[in-house]
Amino acid sequence: MADYENLKNKLAGCYVTIPTLFHDEDLSLDLESMKSHVRYLIGKGMNAENAVFLAGGAAGDFSTMTFDERVAVTKTVIEETQGRVPVAMGGQTTNTRELVKLIKTAADLGAAFVQVSPPYYFNHTEDDFYEFVLAGAEASQEIGIIIYNTFWTSANISDSLVEKLASIPNIVGLKWAVPRTDAMEFETVCAQYSKRFCIIDNNLLFNISFMMGAKTIEVHACNYWPELGIKMYQDLKNKNYEAVQNDLIEKIMPFYHLWVQIEQEYTSGDGYLDKLCMELIGLPSSRCRPPTRDIRQKYREQTRNMLLKSGVPGVLAS
After folding, report:
1. The one catalytic residue among 8, 175, 251, 275
2. CB under 8 Å to 229, separation ≥6 — which residues?
3. Does 224 qualify as catalytic in the annotation?
4. Which of 43, 179, 191, 273 is deepest in the core (most CB within 10 A)?
5. Is the residue at 89 inside a domain?
6. Does the active-site annotation cover 231?
7. Residue 132 is assigned to a structural domain of this protein
8. Is the pLDDT at 1 greater than 70, yes or no?
9. Is residue 283 part of a domain?
10. Is residue 269 part of a domain?
11. How many domains does the chain have?
């Protein structure tokens, strides 16, 4: 069996969803460009001490890919990292049998983790999800399971379910986000379970969560500004909370404000703004697969201005 405590420690740092890149002419996988992006991130200082790469997550277009394409993407990221950064495979699915297959495949490929969310479309119960996760966890004792609370697409994971999931030993991570209410569900779970799980803050409450024991941040800017993610993680470790909050306000919030605007008035999905930001600093990029529409022409100049105002280095001239 794997050393689960060691796997928890490996999760600490920046949790970076690698965008899946496509050839624009036919939207087939562009694996060579993905390799180039992994090399870029590592060249900018991301390593096993400060990062984990997620292959085929939501910003990696998992929902538009076949099983074999998801495997190819994960294999590409693992091979290009060459062990320099731990890799998680996106394991979101509505099918327990497919989850088992994904986890077995991830273990065979050499992934350290698989990210699992509650099944969507049907309003499954918490016991449904517990058995779903248990089947996946039993598929491989060597891989760490990360539970991702995607409450916006499925049932929200309650505190009591987190407690129940804690009994499954190879669940090592909790990618945590919840609707904001006066009950302080986000803070409650961080405070109670940060020793049992590596908490990945997906609510942009980095100072609060790290004060209560979280170890990992999820921020899209890492794809086009990895140095910022590394700096914020180091500041959090050093309890330099004022610097972290300033970076959130001045450098991170503008990205999310633009993302919300695009979601409200044009298209929906994940990863499309990461990709445009990457393109605007000269990295390989692409559109997302439909039904997410291509934002690159409509929002190019607004995104460029956002990057310049935020201080992103290397923004190309218009």
Report:
1. 175
2. 14, 16, 46, 51, 217, 219, 221, 222
3. no
4. 273
5. yes
6. no
7. yes
8. no
9. no
10. no
11. 1
